[in-house]
Write a structure and sequence with these properties.
Strand content: 5-15%
Oligomer: single chain
Structural class: mainly alpha
Number of helices: 4
Strand order of the largest sheet: 1-2
Largest sheet: 2 strands, antiparallel
């Protein structure tokens, strides 16, 4: 099944808003999908959660104001404020949902490998001869 981007109505439901500006929400969702596809392409079906999170952040707080005082007016914005962005957690979630990242094992042994010794075997040495403790095979 292919990824289906969320709708403006789903974004409104996600944010708990009764009314939502449809055109603005559609634009933010479209841009959030494009950002997510810069990390993982094609997007997994469960990527909707990350897209809604990214679009929701931008819809609710478009200038990313992190501090605000009403009287006598004070606002703090981070450097390069505004716009959509993916957090490290968003990127990690997308990779995890796509089945990428995490621990894995690589077996370097060729499929046609033979477990027998690759050096010439000396039949005159080892079991079949007399073993003397401390001296070995004689």
């Amino acid at each position: 099944m292919a990824f289906v981007p969320p709708t403006a109505e789903q974004l409104g439901l996600y944010l708990g808003l009764e009314e939502i500006a449809g055109d603005r929400a559609d634009l933010l969702i479209e841009q959030a999908v494009a950002l997510a596809q810069s990390v993982v392409k094609p997007l997994p079906d469960e990527g909707t959660a990350v897209v809604l999170s990214v679009a929701g952040r931008a819809y609710v707080n478009p200038q990313q104001v992190s501090y605000e005082t009403i009287g006598p007016m004070s606002v703090q914005r981070p450097t390069g404020s505004g716009g959509l962005y993916l957090t490290k957690a968003d990127k990690a979630a997308l990779k995890s949902l796509a089945g990428r990242g995490g621990a894995f094992t690589v077996d370097p042994t060729p499929a046609a490998a033979d477990p027998s010794p690759s050096w010439p075997v000396d039949d005159s040495y080892g079991p079949g001869l007399d073993y003397e403790p401390g001296w070995g095979w004689v």
